[in-house]
Design a protein that fits this description.
Distance between the termini: 34 Å
Radius of gyration: 20 Å
Number of domains: 2
Strand order of the largest sheet: 3-4-5
Strand content: 5-15%
Shape: globular
Amino acid sequence: MSIVVFDPAAFALAYPEFATVAQARTTMLFNMAAATLLDNTDNSPVMDIGLRTQLFYLLVAHLLLLLGSNPTAPDNTPPGRLSSATEGTITTSFEYLLPPSSAMAPWFVQTKYGAMYWTMTAQFRSARIIANGDSGIGRAIAYGSIPFVIPGGV
């Protein structure tokens, strides 16, 4: 298997809204994502290199929105999604939902890119149990790894 090598030019083509961001910044955010958010080694739960590349691009876009695309300019982007707005005397509301399923989900759903990443990686956050007949003994299959035996009664 191989690893994703970040291509700033390909990222800018895929996400033209970030085309003016310095390549050094996008590369730094890719390295941050690879070190902390998504495994970019042969042991990654995402075996398909094309899918892993797409996920890294979503993470870089998510981080650019959260941290700002230009670190020297103030960024007034609020966290969460705009849930209501008024024009007369200017009122806005933002929602920051906390799904009961995960502590990390709220951090990802602050941006459309993070929400897409969270949705696309749902398959890697759960295990499938395959029972062997009526014995109650089965195998757990997770992250594309080699199945392991689960003893009966557990």
